[in-house]
């Protein structure tokens, strides 16, 4: 099974390399804008979508132009892939715009590509060709060998064996740090079948990041909470400085640096959690949080965005596919919090502030989140019995399970035969991984 993913490393460039990286990013932006200008000119002259210059023809024209009288004398200093890839990006952006306009593209409307501005757009460029990863360094065309902060040895090994192939490298700047993201094709073993009974329910929360049905509680990283408080402080400091002043520019740099740090912390933490879940459990059940709906609530929105619920689901979906486990999403109306995990009684009301579940029917007293997590695990396997497990078809991460007979639960538990399992959308694009 071939999958695509991205390996991201923080670079530790020398002073001269820093300058080279900046130059490449500038060149990429320049070529993109140059191409966009021509696209716009072609449109103004009445070109239709079909006849708009392609990345290839733009690159050809660029090669003639760059050496000419109005050309750019600095072109030999920059790897030619930088230009080529910038034109590819432009072509992609144009196509996305047209397809979106023609209604052939899902999702929000795509805007017409805009010019990139220094300091406003992200500094980045992409290289193809001879890219080599070493233990603590990466060799890029034209730029040479740049040190990386992490040890990449385990990937080097896999590249040598041939199970991983590097296809391109995207270099980008975040605040004052440079990163390289290597796009790789990975040959993975066909995932194992999920083990029946090896099911875990995950209740995503605001206080604890996640509570698992086996009783494990995963706290949101403290560093992240501190980081967010500091972020607010820096953001206020920034907006108080006078526009155009040196102080404001300095405050902006500080804010950007800190922002990048917080984002990394969060992503790191989520990656650890989702990898652990997908690797150790054959079946993972999460609730279908209506994230969009909940984001409308501003106080909740902050905490929600912090916990990165949708990112959690996205990561879990593709990792489940890698490791051969199954991700199940309980339907939105399943009352995982209000149901007693012991007797199945359902409460009519359970305010968010009540952190402990107390059952009036059977007297169960349990942490609210743990109760919900157990219910989620039970949703996939209502009353797991040997015979019930046998009749259920084993199924990989990318198939849908249809309606199945109700399990051995008592009436009134919310278990209904028409309840269906839905699989989370699996993101097929490039994904960052640790
Ligand atoms: Zn009960």
Describe the model.
The protein is of the alpha+beta class and about 425 residues long. The protein folds into three domains: about 1-15 and about 125-185, no CATH class; about 15-100, no CATH class; about 200-220 and about 260-425, Nucleotidyltransferase, domain 5. About 40% of the residues lie in helices and about 20% in strands. The strands form three sheets. Strands 1, 2, 3, 4, 5, 6, 7 and 15 form an eight-stranded mixed beta sheet that branches. The protein has a five-stranded mixed beta sheet with strand order 10-9-8-11-12. The protein has a two-stranded antiparallel ribbon with strand order 13-14. The two termini are about 20 Å apart. Bound molecules: zinc ion.
Average pLDDT level: 79
Query: In the residues, how many domains can be counted?
Result: 3
Residue runs with pLDDT of under 50 for 5 or more positions: 383-434
Rg result: 26 Å
Decide which structural class fits the backbone.
alpha+beta
Give the cofactors and ligands: zinc ion
Order of helices and strands: EHHHEEEEHEEEEEHHEHHHEEEHHE
Shape: elongated
Oligomer: single chain
Q: Give the name of the CATH architecture of the largest domain.
A: 2-Layer Sandwich
Count of discrete alpha- or pi-helical segments spanning 4 or more residues: 11
Q: Could you give a short account of the major beta sheet? A: 8 strands, mixed
Distance between the termini: 19 Å
